[in-house]
Amino acid sequence: MPFEIRDLSIHLGGTPVLHGVDFDLSSGGITGIIGANGSGKTTMLRAMAGLLPPETGSVLHQGQDIAAMAPRARARRIAMLPQSAAAPPGLTVRQLVARGRTPWMRPFLPMGPADRAAVDRALHAVGLEDLATRPVDSLSGGQRQRAWIALVLAQECDTILLDEPLNFLDLPHQTELVGLLRDLGKTRSVVMILHDLTIAARTCDQVLALREGRLVAIGPPDAVLAPVPLRETFGIGFECSALPDGKPVVLPAAL
Amino acid sequence: MRYLGLILLLLALAALSLAAGRVWLAPPALIEALSDPEGAGRMVWNLRLPRLLVGMIAGAGFGLSGLVFQTLLRNPLASPDVIGVTQVSAFGAVAALFFGAPVVLGAWGGGLAAIAALAWLAAHPRQGFDPRAVVLQGLALAIFAAAGTEALILRMGDSSAGMAMTWLSGTLNGAGWAEVQRGVWFAPLLLPLLLSGRVLDRLELGDDLARALGLRVGLLRAGLGLIAALVAAGSVALCGPMSFVALAAGPVGRLVAGGRPSPVAAMLTGAAFVTLADVLARAMAPAALLPTGLYTALIGAPVLILTVRRMAQS
Fold first, then answer.
1. Which of A46, A84, A97, A99 would best serve as a mutation to test chain B binding (most B beta carbons within 10 A)?
2. Do A147 and A172 lie in a common domain?
3. Axis crossing angle, helix B217-239 with helix B49-72, rounded to the nearest 10
4. Nearest residue to A148 via CA among A138, A159, A136
5. Which of A107, A124, A155 is the last residue of a domain?
6. Chain B residues near residue A106 by CB distance under 8 angstroms
7. Would you call A51 and B208 a contact, using CB atoms and an 8 Å cutoff?
8. What angle do CA B170, B173, B174 make, to 5 degrees?
9. Rounded to whole angstroms, how far apart are CA atoms B57 and B53?
10. Which residues of B139-154 are buried (b: 16+ CB within 10 A; e: fewer)?
11. Residues on chain B touching A76 (C-beta within 8 angstroms)
12. Enclosing domain of residue A129
């Protein structure tokens, strides 16, 4: 069980953002977090990464309370890619990906052969070996996002948290990245925030819906991405239908 | 190898600094002077060498603290002489002069007061650490401290006021072995900043990612900020606030280090910068011995403009 969230409440600057959230996430596969703006999705993800201390409750990762873990030990188990991460100007793809080895590197010593091999594997996994020496800021949006994903892969954690990884990508790049994320979900537990409900329906093994800091629903996509839980989550009506091949399509009813 | 050019430049400037002055020494005379501290080399050993060492230590300190503050605050303008650390240290030093206390204690006390004030002013109850707030409020702190310093100088006698004004421009005049000893005493503080390259580099990726990579961001930022403030204050105590060194050394060092925050490059750049300015101070007007700080400003402004243009182009 990668995550057991128990009665989790979080306050930011004195304002409650999550209220008594309680759920378990099963191992492996892709979990999508959905919800309107301000529903607490990013706060939930940051809490799961151990970046926010709970006001009450706890976040257990593989049975261990992450609040009690040393930051370095935690970073060897859980990787997180924040929303709209920006690389410093001129940083090459390989240099960026190498940053993912930070929790494994000894203080003040350079990367060893194992670190370099992990960076090579991460670059290979995202198909960026040929662009490894290019500055990140010279890449297209899709390539750039793959470089960031390679950074979290180089961290070699079995749990990866991604905050809106498909943001600002055009449809071909979204499709390409979804394929990559599906591959990742076969060997790791991936938790990501998504806004496109059809992509969530087609990509995720389970979906978690939040509204105003409270858990509305959690379960397989066909159970959560249904008109009733979606209305509870977003406050508007949705049409959920299936294409002839059985794949779901989810759209706001008003469109 | 990346820093070899900077090291060679610094060594060349050091040799030039030992040779420059009212009496210029050709290379054979300089070698002879260095090998005879008690005889022909007394001027070099008693005046020029300590002056060079004090300038290099102070320049290294300014360069390092500049890079650390600029990186911690994610702002190339956020050097200690812009966010008030230097000015409050200088105020502390002038206050110490005014009350007859040791200048070093005044400068260090000022540095500590500056970092405490910045931490207090910048602590946002809702958003946590806000680098923009630190820079803007630091600017206000700098103006406030400069006004306080002027007020103290106006209340001093003519000779003390003149001395304080020269010192406030940043001067190595009168730097001797006592100052070198003081510099050596505070030099260990440079070490943690020198070793902070990886931390600074990861902090540039943003707080959340740095923490997700296992860094104790709050602790590291507070610790490095405190040490950088003490180093800036220590440099001020050695030779007064040398304009532009802290501001320019970080970006120039970055350019040398391929865009990465490099403490080694910033330290070497700062030391080279002050040494060059001091050579110019003695070469241009050997009789007047104008404050070295005037020349750091004269060189620093165009160097900074060229560096920023070069960085923007690349």
1. A99
2. no
3. 150
4. A136
5. A155
6. none
7. yes
8. 125
9. 6
10. bebbeebbebbeebbe
11. 214
12. 88-155
What are residue A161's DSSP bridge partners?
Answer: A80, A191
* Within-domain flag for A250: no
Cα distance from B209 to chain A (closest Cα, Å)? 6
Residues A61 and A163 in one domain: yes
| A162 and A42 in a common domain | yes
Cα B263–chain centre separation: 13
Token pair for A177: 């990245």
Token pair recorded at residue A72: 């370095």
CA neighbor of B66 nearest in space, from B219, B209, B190, B237: B190
Q: Which residues of chain A have pLDDT under 50?
A: none
Which of A14, A46, A102 is the closest to B213 by Cβ?
Answer: A102
The secondary element (H helix, E strand) that includes residue B279 is helix B263-284
Q: Is residue A254 part of a domain?
A: no
Same domain for A62 and A165, yes or no, is yes
Same domain, A115 and A209: no
Q: How far apart are CA B214 and CA B234, in angstroms?
A: 32
Does residue A141 lie within any of the structural domains? yes
Q: What is the CATH number of domain B4-22+44-313?
A: 1.10.3470.10
What is the distance between the alpha carbons of residues B165 and B162, in angstroms, rounded to a whole number? 5
Residue from B205, B78, B208, B79 nearest A89 by CA: B205
Helices A171-187 & A113-126, crossing angle to 10 degrees?
A: 130
Domain ranges in chain B are 4-22+44-313
Helix (H) or strand (E) holding B241: none
Give ipTM to 2 decimals: 0.93
Mean pLDDT by groups of 10 residues along chain B of 314 residues: 89 94 89 87 92 96 96 90 92 91 89 88 68 88 94 87 86 90 91 96 94 95 93 92 90 87 96 95 81 88 81 70
User: How many Å apart are CA B263 and CA B274, to the nearest integer?
Assistant: 17
pLDDT for position B161: 87
Structural domain contains residue A243? no
Number of domains in chain A: 2
Do A66 and A162 have their domain in common? Answer: yes
Does one domain contain both A136 and A172? no
Put simply, the answer to whether A78 touches B212 (Cβ < 8 Å) is yes
